[in-house]
Amino acid sequence: MSVEVELKEIKKHILEISKKLDELMQEREIVSMMKLSEKSLKFLENEPDIYRIEDLRVRYK
Questions:
Q1: Please, which pLDDT band fits residue 52 given cuts at 50, 70 and 90?
Q2: What is the pTM of this model?
């Protein structure tokens, strides 16, 4: 293989790796936000429910 062909392949692989890293970072951000939201809502865990099932006007099956 010539140097030019090898460089093109290397560039292609670098672009693929970059895309995969971007996807991983995005997934990590999403997971972090989900964990944060779970923690931030923990204080409501022991609070009584405001509404009961009997209060519903429409029930979906």
A1: confident
A2: 0.57
